[in-house]
Specification:
With about 475 residues, the chain is an alpha/beta fold. The protein contains 18 helices and 17 strands. About 50% of the residues are buried. The model has no long low-confidence stretch (mean pLDDT about 95). It holds the Pfam family Glycos_transf_1.
Length: about 475
């Protein structure tokens, strides 16, 4: 079975968010199961060429907006694997981007419209050798339509994975003309364009041979209009071809027993002393007083629509009344960045609060390894990786009981959850964790968290079976 994994980012070559982690891990796990996977991404100018052995393979011609554009095809590998990564370079359309979280801004949508065309031309130049194209999020939503027009009945099967329905990639009718899609050939496209806008995610969900999302609970939630909007209509009509598979994490990458980012490494047997030692070092690093109090953290993109920043902000002063320390690492919404930075300057919080705006992988690992409690009050969460990483490092998560958080955190066993999205419910859950800290039950819960297996091995097997099913559906 030969699969082309089309995606906007792949860690560690280019990583913007959690999608990059998935693209850098799932293909490696599939490779171990005998699936031949190639990953295809834009060749952004910010990719550090010197860090990887990158070889030019060929040049293809891509028709777009009434002109023909040369796209150079390069190849490298995901480090530590035999998985090929195909990098598509075009200075005008594909070199920009890859810096911040991909959004549905006009230039981003145009970039990925061109990327979709280039992927299809690459498939044609590769003599249509793939059995299945695994499309990921709105960035790849037009690939099935384009394959139908360019390859016809001989096209490979397609699977679209919805990683986050909040970002759908919308643009004007003009972009459809630039991509040169034949509107009369696609009924869904005709319907979508009634408002003179095209929605990439909707087109992908409607046209792919099958659709899945990144946790079983989020799959159920997407069937409701208040979560999925128009796409819920599409998914309800495709119930026999819509699935939920939980994401995983790369245990070899997130490994507290071998992690070089932390000084005191640990496992299930020796976590307690090592965590206290790591905590003391981090307290010094962050200019906090060294004291053995619950160490609470949040590592997140500062996205007020999804990540529950309103709950955090409304609860934070009450949380800081408790005898604990709170550390935040993240960047995003400028309003929340300013509010959090200003709060950290208040004198009475100097010994209790540390705000680090930006992202630093090494610091993130040290925070995970030092934390006792990890906050994740997301309004919605398709899967979430941070809660899995936190548990891998012995930090008990406090989560809103939705999506992938619901599928991974067991209240009172390896974490804490709250059902009502409100500041009071969130604060009660944090207080429950705070009161339990240091008890025998706490220690047992930490051990449970450390013993969890969120590796990709189980999920990769499910994806392999889904690939087989989708290929059969296409025949």
């Amino acid at each position: 079975m030969k699969v082309l994994f089309a995606v906007s980012e792949v860690a560690p070559i280019i990583k913007v968010g959690g999608l990059g982690d998935v693209a850098g891990s799932l293909p490696k796990a599939l490779e171990k199961l005998g699936v031949d996977v190639d990953v295809i991404v834009p060749f952004y100018s910010i990719i550090k060429r010197g860090d990887y052995k990158i070889i030019k393979q060929l040049t293809i011609e891509v028709p777009y907006s009434g002109e023909t554009h040369d796209v150079s095809v390069y190849k490298t590998k995901i480090p530590g694997s035999n998985v090929d990564v195909i990098l598509l370079f075009n200075q005008r359309f594909l070199s920009g981007g890859g810096v911040d979280a991909f959004s549905s801004l006009k230039d981003e949508v145009a970039r990925f419209a061109f990327f979709n065309k280039a992927v299809v031309e690459f498939i044609k130049a590769s003599f249509n050798i793939y059995d299945l194209i695994h499309c990921n999020d709105w960035h790849t939503g037009l690939i099935t339509h384009l394959l139908e027009e360019e390859v016809g009945e001989e096209r490979p099967a397609t699977l679209l994975t919805i990683h986050n329905v909040s970002y759908q990639g919308q643009s004007s009718l003009e972009l459809v003309r630039e991509v040169d899609l034949s509107i009369p050939l696609h009924r869904i496209l005709q319907w979508d364009l009634e408002d003179n806008n095209i929605n990439f995610m909707l087109e992908g969900a409607a046209s792919a041979d099958a659709v899945n999302t990144v946790s079983p609970s989020y799959a159920k939630e997407l069937l409701f209009d208040d979560i999925g909007g128009q796409i819920s209509d599409i998914l309800r009509g495709r119930s026999g071809r819509f699935f939920g598979i939980l994401n995983g994490i790369d245990n070899s990458y997130f490994d507290p027993e071998k992690d070089r980012n932390i000084k005191y490494r640990f496992g299930v047997r020796d976590w307690k002393e090592a965590k206290n030692e790591n905590k003391a070092l981090l307290q010094k690093e962050l200019s906090l007083p060294v004291k053995n109090v619950p160490f609470v953290s949040l590592i997140s993109r500062l996205d007020p629509k999804q990540k529950g920043l309103d709950l955090l902000w409304e609860s934070l002063k009450d949380i800081l009344k408790l005898d604990l320390q709170f550390v935040l690492l993240g960047k995003g919404d400028k309003k929340y960045e300013e509010m959090l930075a200003n709060l950290s300057k208040v004198k009475k919080y100097h010994e209790k609060l540390s705000i680090s705006l930006g992202f630093d992988e090494g610091l993130a690992r040290r925070i995970y390894a030092s934390s006792d409690i990890f906050l994740m009050p997301s309004r919605t969460e398709p899967c979430g990786l941070s809660q899995m990483i936190a548990m891998r490092y012995g930090a008990l998560p406090v989560v809103h009981n939705v999506g992938g958080l619901k599928d991974t955190v067991k209240d009172g066993i390896d974490g804490f959850s709250f059902n009502i999205f409100s500041p009071n419910a969130f604060l009660r859950a944090v207080t429950r964790a705070y009161k339990l800290y240091g008890s025998r039950k706490w220690d047992a819960m930490v051990k449970n968290a450390l013993k969890n297996d969120f590796s990709w091995s189980k999920s990769a097997k499910e994806y392999k079976e889904l690939y087989k099913k989708v290929i059969e559906l296409r025949k």
